[in-house]
């Protein structure tokens, strides 16, 4: 793996405006360093660390001159270029629409053997609403008439056989990634109203049963899971069942704020997701995804995480570091920068 052309930059704490400097400034920062490339970083103890972003197709990312070279104008060319820069990506589009095998086969065909995909679970799999019009025809046709006429449906309202079909369709679509060993894990991101308690833990265990040997991780979105009463029990639950708990960096002090704890709950895989720290948009309704996560981490914020990534890699066989601050090239820039800092710790070249 190539060594950074310059050592990771140290910077004083930046004022808030510096966290949204625009794509040109972010691109200039990224140009100082080599991207981590398609091979994961292998640590001295044999663990693998992969760096990447959530999505390679966000409209603000694919604009001319932001991240992709001018000749990368097709979906195939963009994925191939992305996979030359990073060793993993998180695919978030299945949250909105169940993927097809044909689409997933294309992902597998367009990426190198060393590449991995984390795939976000469909909304109905984590108790969130789905637009009826975006469900596959066979699932729409199986809906009872009152549900079929609605614009959105929730999993709790589905007949059991329809809910089963949603899960089966999703898992079947992932088969091309499983056959090529390119599936990292399914991301089960539960909503803010998913509260600690027996019912929620049973729902996670139901997912565990449905997935069988399909790897998955769990991200929580309510601060109550980590209050003084629940924090220890929360992490013990994931450890007892060998389920990777998704560590996060996100705005703090809100109802949905999960603290940035370092907790490896499954030896096979650890996942860290960086959402940015844009507090003013974090829980606001009617905000686009790009606006919610429009935050460029500064060097000091990333430097605080670099040794933690190393610590996590000492306890898990594989680590996925995912930048979900997916506005323009903010995520790709921060992924390149944090990868350089972690490589610097290990003296990797």
Can you describe this structure?
The protein is of the alpha/beta class and about 350 residues long. It has one domain (about 15-345): TIM Barrel. The protein is built from 14 helices and eleven strands. The protein has helices at about 25-30, 60, 75-85, 100-110, 135-140, 145-150, 160-175, 175-180, 200-210, 230-240, 280, 290, 300-315, 330-345, and strands spanning about 40, 50-55, 90, 115-120, 130, 150-155, 185-190, 215-220, 245-250, 270-275, 320-325. The strands form three sheets. A five-stranded mixed β-sheet has the order 1-2-11-10-9, with helices on one face. Strand 7, helix 9 (about 200-210) and strand 8 form a beta-alpha-beta unit. Helix 1 (about 25-30) runs parallel beside helix 14 (about 330-345) and helix 13 crosses helix 14 (about 330-345). It is globular, with a radius of gyration of 20 Å. Residues about 1-15 have low confidence and may be disordered.
Give me some keywords for this one.
349 residues, single chain, 36% helix, alpha/beta, 11 strands
Q: Which strands sit side by side, in order, in the main sheet?
A: 1-2-11-10-9
The CATH first-level class comes to Alpha Beta
Q: Order of helices and strands, N to C?
A: HEEHHEHEEHHEHHEHEHEEHHHEH
Taken from the alpha-carbon principal axes, the silhouette is globular
Supply the helix-strand structural class: alpha/beta
Please, how many helices?
A: 14
Radius of gyration: 20 Å
Strand content: 5-15%
CATH topology label: TIM Barrel
Can you summarize the main beta sheet? 5 strands, mixed
Helix content: 25-40%
